[in-house]
Amino acid sequence: MFGKGKAPFEALVRKLERLAELNDEDRQALTSLPFTIETIGEDGLLIRAGEEKHHCGVLLEGYACRSKSLGSGGRQIFSFHFPGDILDVEHILLPQADHDIEAATDVSVAWVPSADLRKLTQERPAVADALWRDCLIDASVFREWVLNVGKRDPRSRVSHMLCEFATRREAAGLGKPQGAELPISHQQISDATGLTPVQVNRMLHLLVAAGIIADDGQRLKIMNSDALREIAAFDPAYLHALAA
Amino acid sequence: MFGKGKAPFEALVRKLERLAELNDEDRQALTSLPFTIETIGEDGLLIRAGEEKHHCGVLLEGYACRSKSLGSGGRQIFSFHFPGDILDVEHILLPQADHDIEAATDVSVAWVPSADLRKLTQERPAVADALWRDCLIDASVFREWVLNVGKRDPRSRVSHMLCEFATRREAAGLGKPQGAELPISHQQISDATGLTPVQVNRMLHLLVAAGIIADDGQRLKIMNSDALREIAAFDPAYLHALAA
DNA sequence: CGCCGACTTGAATTCCTTCAAGTACGGTGG
DNA sequence: CCACCGTACTTGAAGGAATTCAAGTCGGCG
Q1: Which of A47, A155, B60, B137 gives a 20 to 30 Å CA spacing to B113?
Q2: Is the CB of B153 under 7 A from strand C?
Q3: Does residue A156 come out as left (phi exceeding 0), alpha (psi in the -120 to 50 range) or beta?
Q4: What number is the average pLDDT over the span B214-233?
Q5: Helix or strand or coil: residue B177?
Q6: Which among A99, A128, A152 has CB closest to B70?
Q7: Which of these, B18, B9, B11, lies nearest to B242 by C-alpha position?
Q8: What is the pLDDT of residue A208?
Q9: Over pLDDT 90: what percentage of chain A?
Q10: What is the least distance, in Å, from the CA of A2 to any CA of chain B?
Q11: CB of B31 within 8 Å of any CB in chain A?
């Protein structure tokens, strides 16, 4: 069973505090938002493209990812999310989901009615700032992903994706990149980078051979995050306030 | 010489009206925003990645695109913009530019101080809604581009890009996709799709051979927009309120 | 213990990129 | 008006890189 019971929005508040100056009333308002908790297993779908959604999901535990699929079968992931992230801020103003959101691991999510969140943004400018800024950073991340998938060579492409994953994980308070164990499958890396699983496998082996990562088949451990950043030419500026 | 003189923000207001219900005061406030006009020739840089920018650019005439470049030389375009678009709403809350913005044709831009725009959003909720929604749609477009560049085959990738270009052009009031003449070079298509110029050339010839587009070397004309959408499997839902 | 899913690995093939040479067009200056 | 020049586009051929295919291994879970 998931959920921290007492303070489900603790991570959310911590995140928004990096995005704007919140006062006690802001924090209070955030933590008193109504919500219902949903827990769902690995690979479960939280939101399906096309759905009308009048709630926003705050990730409490686990990892989630957002993706779009082609009729012809291909799937493209374009972001990973960590506890404290709002998975779909866009549903405050755009009820129609334009992509899928799914659990990358077992996950628990607090669903907050969009209307309450919206009201909050109208009454509390600092919260509005924080949420808006969050959207803007989201967009910045997507731009970087277009570049990653469109122009980087396979090796730096995989490396860059791992760097971002590790950096955002750290920003969510889950520990430093160096030595981090990332719960991500080759298939997910494949869907996130636009490479085939075979190619991903080969790139990872390259990195393993160089002693930069370790891969026991289940988890992927970063052994030398500086070298990884070097290969990826990773510049966290595009993460703005989310960079650690 | 560019600039409509009297009503530079006419197109902007028209666009924001599709994004939220504006009243006369909202419109009034928008049209009284202070600004300075800049005109710049094709390929000129409006904003460079890394810059601190305390103004937002409203595109008045011409086309612009946003892109990021790799140290190693590659350039990736991830959006095209038309008159009425704000090129960089993100600078309202994030002063540091994370990408380049350049003129795709000769262009004129009205620079509005971010602070004034920000004040407007604090005083006029409808304007805030419209601008926020604009950001969210922006982000949705980037997601679609990740998919386009990451997973679509070359033919539908180029087609999809052209469909979006034509659709957004139409949304800006520049005429229907069918028969539209798009002022876009092979190099730009290449940078937008992650394909080489050679490959782009070959894909365009395929489309020309099928009678779907015409290409006189300067301009690219859409002869059969339905067929183009078919090939691209173009679903404008991701453009939300921007779809025509 | 056995099954299933995820990862691994090599080989063949296909497709894209690269390279290089050539063409067409618009703009400039004579 | 014409010749020249530069840029953008065109085209074929060679080479290489990624995908696909297929068979095999490993580990966890029932």
Answers
A1: B137
A2: yes
A3: alpha
A4: 91
A5: coil
A6: A152
A7: B18
A8: 94
A9: 91
A10: 30
A11: no
- As a whole number of angstroms, the distance between CA A161 and CA B6 comes to 48
Using one digit for the tens of pLDDT, what is the confidence trace for A38-77?
Answer: 999 999 999 999 999 999 999 999 999 999 999 888 899 9
Domains in chain A, start-ordered, CATH in brackets? 10-143 (2.60.120.10), 152-243 (1.10.10.10)
Q: Say if B118 is an interface residue toward chain A (CB within 8 Å).
A: no
Whole-number CA gyration radius for chain A: 18
Q: Is the minimum CB–CB distance between B115 and chain A shorter than 8 Å?
A: no
Calculate the angstrom distance between C1' of C6 and CA of A181: 18
pLDDT at A46: 96
Confidence of residue B40 (pLDDT cuts 50, 70, 90): very high
Report CA Rg, chain B: 18
Q: Which residue of B has its CA nearest to A240?
A: B94
| Residues of chain B contacting A66 with CB distance shorter than 8 Å | 143
Cα-based angle B95, A90, B123 (whole degrees, multiple of 5): 55
Q: Give dist(CA B184, CA B182) in Å, integer.
A: 6
Given A70, A132, A143, which is nearest B142 (Cβ)? Answer: A143
Pairing of strands B107-113, B55-61: antiparallel
Q: How far is CA B31 from CA B12, B35, B53, B59, B125, in A?
A: 9, 10, 22, 14, 16
Predicted structure pTM score:
0.95
CA distances for A220 relative to A190, A193, A206, angstroms: 14, 16, 13
Helix (H), strand (E) at residue B166: helix B154-171
Torsion over CA: B102, B105, B111, B115 (sign): negative
pLDDT, tens digit, 9 for 90 and up, residues B45-86: 999 999 999 999 999 999 999 999 998 888 999 999 999 999
Place of tokens 């019971």: A5
Chain B CA closest to residue A76: B147
Q: In what order do the strands lie in the sheet with A213-215?
A: A181-182, A220-222, A213-215
pLDDT of residue B7: 79
Name every residue whose Cβ is closer than 8 Å to that of residue B194 and which is 6 or more positions away in sequence.
Answer: A149, A150, A151, B76, B149, B157
Tokens of B38: 């800049």
